[in-house]
C-alpha cells in the first residue's frame, strides 16, 4: 500500500512511531495452560497482538485415510477471529489463513518428535484474538508453548519475530502500521538450541548487507522470546522444586 | 547420601549429565552424546547420575499394563475401548464370554454397552497395531458394575501407587476400600458407602495436583484422617 505523505514512521530522533528504538521489541506476555479442555494451551501477547493456541492429541484421527504408518500427522489451523481486526473479518478460512497454516505447520514439524506417535494426529489450533502485526510469528511462539504444555515430545521450542525495513531503517518486530507502510517485512522463526531456522518469508527487498543485519536482529529477538518461553514453562512447575 | 540438586528442564534444554536415567522411558533424547529434554521434566542431579522425571507425558500403552477402558463402540465380535491413549484398544468377545457364543444370534451390546468401564490388561501393542486387552490373569479384571472411576493424569499414577505401593497401601488401609489403579490414569474405587468413595476421590485429586512435591504421603495421611472421621458417624 502507498504510504500517505503526511505519515512519518521514523522520527528525527531515530525512534519509531510508538517510541521504540529500531531493535526494540514490543512488550511480550506469555501464559500456558489457559484452557481446561485442551491437552495443552498458551496465550501470547506481543504488544496489541493477542494469540491463543490450543493443542489436542496425539489422538486417533477421525478420518482414517489420513494416518501415516510411521509418525503422527501435525494439523495446524491458523484462524483470525471475526473481531480480531478493525473491519470484521469473515470467519471462513481465507487464502492467507490457509497459507499461514501451512507455513506454521512446517515451522513446527522439524521439532515435534512425531515418530514417537505413529498413526496418530496432533491438532494445533491458533486463534488470533486481536491482530496488530506479527500474528504468524506470535502464532508459532504460542503453538510451540502449547505443544510443550501438552507433553508432546519436542526437540526444542520455536519462537518467531518479524524484521522489516521502514523508511530505510531495519526494525525489529513490526506492528500493523509499519508492516502496511514499510518497504519490507520478513517473518523469521527459529529453534535456537537446534540452530534451525524453521520459518522464513520475505515480502519486499533487502540488500545483502541489510539481510545480514536483519537476521542478526531477528536472532536476538528470538533468543529473548525463547528465554521467556522457558521461564513461563518453568513457572508452571514452580511448586515442584519448592 | 550425596548432595542432590533439583532442576526443571523444558524442551530443548541440555541435561548436564553423562548418564541419565529416564523414569517412564519418555521425555529425553540424545544428540552428539548429550542428553536433552523433550518434555518438561524434573532432573535430580547427584554425583553419580541424573534422574529425569517427566512433568507432562502422554500415556503410551505397554504390554502388561493394567488399564481401565471405557467402551466406545461395539462390533459383532469385539468391543472398542477408550484407554486415554492416542490409540483405542480392542477387546475380543472371547475374553469376556467363556461359553460358546454365536455372533449371529446374540448381541455383544447385551454384555458391554457404550459407556461401560472395563478393567483389563494390555496383552499386545506395537507401533503398527492398536493395543489388545485381555481379561484373564486376575479376578479383578472384567466389567465394572459398582463403585467409582476417578480420572487423573497418567503422569500421577506412579505417585498414586507410591514407592513399593506405599501410597496405595495408605489409601486402602485408611479407607478400607477396594482399589485398582489403571496405568492410563483411571482409578477404580469401591467402598462401603458413597461418602467414602468421594473422600478417596478427593485424596486422589490432591495427589494429582501435588504429584511432584515432597512430603506428600504425610499430607495425604492427615487429609484422610481429617475426612474419614466425618464419614464414619
Please provide a written account of the structure.
The complex is a heterodimer of chains A (242) and B (233). Chain A is of the alpha+beta class and 242 residues long. Chain A is built from 5 helices and 9 strands, in the order ββββαβαββαββαα. Chain A has helices at 95-108, 135-150, 176-181, 208-236, 238-241, and strands at 28-32, 40-46, 49-59, 73-80, 121-130, 159-166, 169-172, 184-191, 196-200. Chain A starts with 27 loop residues before the first strand and ends with a helix. With 233 residues, chain B is of the alpha+beta class. In chain B, helix 3 packs parallel to helix 5 (216-231) and helix 4 (194-209) runs antiparallel to helix 5 (216-231). The longest helix of chain B is centred in the C-terminal third of the chain and has 16 residues, at 194-209. The model of chain B has no long low-confidence stretch (mean pLDDT 91). The interface between A and B is large, with 39 and 32 residues.
Tags for this model:
heterodimer; A: alpha+beta; five-stranded mixed sheet; 5 helices; globular; B: alpha+beta; five-stranded mixed barrel; four-stranded mixed sheet
Write a brief caption for the model:
The complex is a heterodimer of chains A (242) and B (233). In chain A, helix 1 (95-108) crosses helix 2 (135-150). Chain A is an alpha+beta fold and 242 residues long.
Topology diagram in text:
The complex is a heterodimer of chains A (242) and B (233).
Chain A lengths: L27 E5 L7 E7 L2 E11 L13 E8 L14 H14 L12 E10 L4 H16 L8 E8 L2 E4 L3 H6 L2 E8 L4 E5 L7 H29 L1 H4 L1
Parallel strand pairs in A: 4-5
Antiparallel strand pairs in A: 1-2, 2-3, 3-5, 6-7, 6-8, 8-9
Helix pairs in contact in A: 1-2
Chain B lengths: L4 E5 L4 E2 L4 E3 L5 E4 L2 E4 L3 E5 L4 E5 L11 E9 L3 E5 L6 E4 H4 L20 E10 L2 E6 L7 E2 L4 E4 L5 H5 L4 H10 L2 E5 L3 E5 L3 H16 L6 H16 L2
Parallel strand pairs in B: 3-7, 10-12
Antiparallel strand pairs in B: 1-6, 2-5, 4-5, 6-7, 8-9, 8-11, 9-10, 11-12, 11-13, 14-16, 15-16
Amino acid at each position: 500500500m502507498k504510504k500517505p505523505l503526511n505519515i512519518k514512521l521514523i522520527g528525527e530522533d531515530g525512534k519509531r512511531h510508538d517510541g521504540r528504538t529500531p531493535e526494540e521489541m514490543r512488550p511480550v506476555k506469555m501464559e500456558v495452560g489457559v484452557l481446561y479442555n485442551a491437552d495443552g494451551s498458551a496465550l501470547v501477547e506481543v504488544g496489541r497482538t493477542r494469540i491463543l493456541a490450543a493443542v489436542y492429541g496425539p489422538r486417533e484421527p477421525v478420518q482414517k485415510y489420513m494416518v501415516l504408518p510411521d509418525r503422527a500427522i501435525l494439523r495446524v489451523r491458523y484462524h483470525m477471529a471475526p473481531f480480531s481486526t478493525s473491519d470484521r473479518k469473515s470467519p471462513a478460512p481465507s487464502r492467507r489463513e490457509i497459507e499461514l497454516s501451512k507455513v506454521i505447520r512446517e515451522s513446527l514439524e522439524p521439532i515435534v518428535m512425531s515418530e514417537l506417535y505413529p498413526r496418530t494426529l496432533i491438532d494445533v489450533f491458533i486463534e488470533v484474538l486481536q491482530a496488530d502485526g506479527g500474528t504468524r510469528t506470535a502464532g508459532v511462539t504460542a503453538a510451540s508453548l502449547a505443544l510443550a504444555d501438552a507433553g508432546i515430545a519436542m526437540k526444542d521450542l520455536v519462537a518467531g519475530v518479524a524484521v522489516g525495513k521502514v523508511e530505510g531503517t531495519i526494525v525489529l518486530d513490526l506492528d500493523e502500521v509499519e508492516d502496511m507502510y514499510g518497504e519490507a517485512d520478513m517473518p523469521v522463526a527459529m529453534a535456537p538450541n537446534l540452530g534451525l531456522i524453521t520459518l522464513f518469508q520475505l515480502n519486499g527487498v533487502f540488500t545483502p548487507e541489510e539481510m545480514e543485519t536483519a537476521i542478526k536482529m531477528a536472532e536476538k529477538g528470538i533468543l529473548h522470546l525463547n528465554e521467556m518461553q522457558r521461564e513461563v514453562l518453568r513457572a508452571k512447575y514452580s511448586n515442584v522444586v519448592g | 547420601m550425596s548432595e542432590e540438586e533439583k532442576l526443571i528442564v523444558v524442551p530443548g534444554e541440555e541435561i548436564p549429565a553423562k548418564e541419565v536415567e529416564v523414569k517412564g522411558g519418555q521425555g529425553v533424547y540424545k544428540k552428539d552424546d548429550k542428553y536433552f529434554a523433550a518434555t518438561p521434566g524434573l532432573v535430580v542431579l547427584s554425583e553419580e547420575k541424573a534422574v529425569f522425571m517427566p512433568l507432562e507425558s502422554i500415556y503410551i500403552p505397554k504390554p502388561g499394563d493394567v488399564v481401565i477402558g471405557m467402551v466406545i463402540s461395539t462390533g459383532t465380535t469385539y468391543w472398542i475401548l477408550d484407554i486415554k491413549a492416542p490409540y483405542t484398544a480392542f477387546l475380543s468377545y472371547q475374553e469376556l464370554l467363556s461359553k460358546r457364543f454365536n455372533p449371529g444370534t446374540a448381541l455383544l451390546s447385551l454384555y458391554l454397552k457404550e459407556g461401560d468401564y472395563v478393567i483389563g490388561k494390555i496383552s499386545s501393542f506395537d507401533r503398527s497395531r492398536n493395543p489388545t486387552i485381555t481379561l484373564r490373569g486376575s479376578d479383578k479384571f472384567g466389567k465394572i458394575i459398582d463403585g467409582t472411576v476417578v480420572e487423573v493424569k497418567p503422569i500421577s499414577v506412579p505417585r498414586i501407587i507410591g514407592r513399593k505401593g506405599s501410597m496405595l497401601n495408605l489409601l486402602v488401609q485408611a479407607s478400607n476400600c477396594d482399589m485398582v489403579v489403571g496405568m492410563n490414569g483411571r482409578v477404580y474405587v469401591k467402598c462401603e458407602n458413597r461418602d467414602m468413595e468421594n473422600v478417596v476421590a478427593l485424596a486422589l485429586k490432591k495427589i494429582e495436583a501435588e504429584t511432584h512435591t515432597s512430603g506428600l504421603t504425610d499430607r495425604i495421611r492427615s487429609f484422610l484422617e481429617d475426612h474419614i472421621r466425618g464419614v464414619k458417624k
